[in-house]
Write a structure and sequence with these properties.
alpha+beta, Translation, Eukaryotic Peptide Chain Release Factor Subunit 1, Chain A, Nucleotidyltransferase, domain 5, 60s Ribosomal Protein L30, Chain: A, 4-stranded antiparallel beta sheet, 4-stranded mixed beta sheet
Amino acid sequence: MDLEYLRPLFAGDGPWASVYLDATHAENATHAQNATHAENAAHAEDATRAEGDAGHRIEQRWRDLAGLLAGAGADPATIAAIGEAVQGYPHRPGRHGLAIFARAGEVALIEPLPAPPVADLATWGPLPHAMPMVALRGEEIPYVRVQAGHREGDIEALDAGGTPRRYTVHGAGEQPIANPRYQRAAEENWKRHAGDVAAAADAAEQIGAEVVVVAGDPKEIPYVVGKLPPRWRDRVVTTGQTGGSGRLDEATERAVAEVAAQNMKASVARYGSRPHADGLGDVVVRLRRGQVEEVLLVDDPDSTDRLFIGAGDPRLIATEPGTLRASGVEPIEVRADAALLRAVVGTGAGLLLVDPAEIGLTHGIGAILRDDDDESTA
């Protein structure tokens, strides 16, 4: 899982405000588009009314969360900055959420979520509470899609998006939300490498794509695939669909989910065949030493586990405060998942959220160690 987008959250000292908000507007607005001419006026009026009601509900939910932040000690400037971000964020169709993180009167990150949070949430603490966002994003497969051109190996178009990890048949009018970060990556690389497969490879690298979808004439597709770097060829799904940007057709979406599931199984297999750490204490030690290549974690939103960190260096992480004090570091107690995310991002490790049925991990956590680590607990 690509976590580069989290770096701004761990670049500054806390305290941090973290907000998760259901940002769904008028779910019925799309019905007007499908109505007959005679029904359009009534449906449009209903959609406008629904949009206004939804906007009022979002505003009220934010006011409730702002009150919670104020009660927890958040400063007025930071609360105001989040309020402006909520009000100014563009309306999007379909059910979705927003995750917003702010400190010292400034919003550091605002991210759309592919689904609303289970419940609106606001926290104020030494570290951002980013794991709910990571978990929701982990349910989405980032992909890059290219349209094969008419000259051998050229491409005519490039876009990027996300699709649900667990394939389901979508209802009428239902679409996975487009992540603007994916779209920006596609646009930037298309401008730089228009017509060249390098645009697809660079965009895939930028968003951490799990799958590269190559669409178009079956005769041209092999030339495009052949020009991709080897690491991306193994992630290719091909399709004859030639439509523009937007959601994938259902057959391709199913194929993408299957490839992502295979990638997940491969990572779990690597854990069993490579030197690894097992259990919270062992993983924390390895993170502190910078020995972790990838953490495997069973996400538990109800976990009450706590860890200790030191200011600045993300490797300052421990299960006991005395470990840090022995090094002359004043320990700060935080949520375990927040400390783990900080250490993973700060040490350049990867993160894979797993289902407990897929692998047995002590306390729901393990780690694959880097190749240059001579020690092993395997």
